[in-house]
Amino acid sequence: MQKPEYFVGIDVAAASFYATAGKVKDGKWNLITHPREFENEYDSMSRFLNWLQEQQITSQNAVICIEATGVYNEVLAHFLVANGYTIAIQPPLEVKRAFKPVGHKTDPVDSAQIAEYAYRFLDELHYWKPRAEILEQIKTLLATREQLCAQKTAHLNTLKALQRKVVRTPLAEQVLEKEESQLKLHIREIEKEIERLIDQDPTYRNFVGLILTIPGVGLLLAANLLVTYQTSPQNFHPKSLAAFIGICPFQHQSGTSVLSHSTSRHYGPPALRRLLFLAAMSVRMHHPQFRLYFSRKILEGKSKKLIINNIANKLLKIICAVVRTQTPFIYGYRSINPQQLILNKALTMS
Q: For residues 68 and 10, is the Cβ–Cβ distance under 8 A?
């Protein structure tokens, strides 16, 4: 990508957004506009497009950087991409850490800082493209299922507490039982809809079908991987995925006084991390190879949490291998080092 001439920063809120543009002149960063407010609705997008054109900002000479605000920036992002603009959506914390916490904190100031951030960190921007419609629907269904499962657990816990009371309240217990049953029904409906949407696209169906051949991997884990990384084999590198999900241990030490055990970072996609943990627990119980591995590590004195995390990493490596080779999982498969084969052949011939 050729370095753009203009950088536009946008701070988005529910009702409106502020935009500020800047460029480099004589080797120095300069704002070329004052922050301008626009209504955050589709009918106002043409006004914003006209404002860009008045500043001679086109899709060929500019990068537009938007602060991530969930659904509030969706209309703007889709509109700009449809008009050919290159846009980047950045987490607010990244932008905040790039500037000293001095001065005013307002939406106009933020939009100017976002424009400067885009210029200073051009090589680190997260360029955004809209997901396919099916993937967007699956993502929404997965998020809705998570919410329903949390509600079901809350109702169940409340019901168990009421059943242990000395003075029972039948009506309250009946309401909670009905709510739990209804939530179970909705969760099953969502899972069926996710399967139906995946079956509509041959590429998605093949991707999920390959991953489901791996022991311990279910539909929910496969669907989350599909939505997060889509189907490109280039996205499936075990080390980078493990670091992103939050199951890769990192060293933490400095000099001789700061030294602690290696641990994974405590943030990342919680749904993927939880589903990988459940998959690891499943194969630990039901797959002979992993069951033997777990027993051996226990005898070595390793903690159960560490072993389960190792199994999750092994499963992630298998998932990446299956996706990158487009080959279903083979039970009993063992990776063989080619150099070892040559050595074994030489020893046999001698």
A: no
Residue 223 and residue 233: Cα distance in Å, rounded?
A: 16
Residue 152, token pair as written in the block: 């079901």
Residue 27 zone, left/alpha/beta (φ > 0; ψ -120 to 50; rest): left
- 332 beta partners: none
CATH number for the domain whose boundaries are 6-124:
3.30.420.10
What was the pLDDT predicted at 192?
A: 96
pLDDT digits 0-9 by tens, 280-295: 999 999 999 899 999 9
Q: Tell if the pTM clears 0.85, that is, is over it.
A: no
CA atoms within 13 A on the CB side of 198: 28
Identify the burial level of 65 via C-beta atoms within 10 angstroms of its C-beta, where 0-12 means exposed, 13-18 middle and 19 or more buried.
Answer: buried
Under DSSP, is residue 95 helix (H, G, I), strand (E, B) or coil? helix
327 φ, ψ to 5°? -125, 130
Rounded (5°) CA angle 190-232-245: 65
Helix (H) or strand (E) holding 345: helix 338-349
Half-sphere exposure (Cβ direction) of 136: Cα atoms closer than 13 Å: 8
